[in-house]
């Protein structure tokens, strides 16, 4: 069995020159309001599932801008499965398995509820919104030359 390696914190302390295997994480802000369903959802079952899941995920601060399209795909898959069941057919096992895996991504199955972390409370879409402008500068203005900055 190979050596598990040094933790990232110890590599930083010892000054290792190798690039660490840690990946940068991007934290998207959670949506504050329940978004409306996209127009391209397949049927009424998919739209009903959108309104149900979007409300649950928004209230639990899991739904972000980056998760809207995957949520729509989950809802479309639910619509296809529901249409097959109401027509008296049976959906394929692969389709039901894919639906369950997609629900896992949002923490909507009992096994994955603890593995999805919600966005921090009060997270703002703009992390610099609490900082003001420097004196003498207006918002959304860019100085054209360095000399204009020196004159101020």
Descriptive account of the structure:
This protein has a domain at 45-110. The protein has helices at residues 8-14, 44-59, 68-86, 93-105, 146-151. Residues 138-152 have low confidence and may be disordered. Helices cover 40% and strands 0% of the residues. The termini are far apart. It is mainly α and 152 residues long. Helix 2 (44-59) crosses helix 3 and helix 3 (68-86) runs antiparallel to helix 4.
Order of helices and strands: HHHHH
**What does the overall shape look like?**
extended
* Structural class label: mainly alpha
Rg estimate, integer Å = 24 Å
- The average pLDDT value, as a whole number, equals 79
Low-confidence stretches: 138-152
Share of helix among residues?
40-55%
Distance between the termini: 65 Å
- Secondary structure: number of strands: 0
What's the number of helices? 5
Report on the biggest sheet.
none
Strand content: under 5%
Short key terms for the protein model shown above:
extended; disordered C terminus; 152 residues; mainly alpha; 5 helices
Short overview:
The protein has 152 residues and is mostly helical.
Topology:
Layout: H1 8-14, H2 44-59, H3 68-86, H4 93-105, H5 146-151
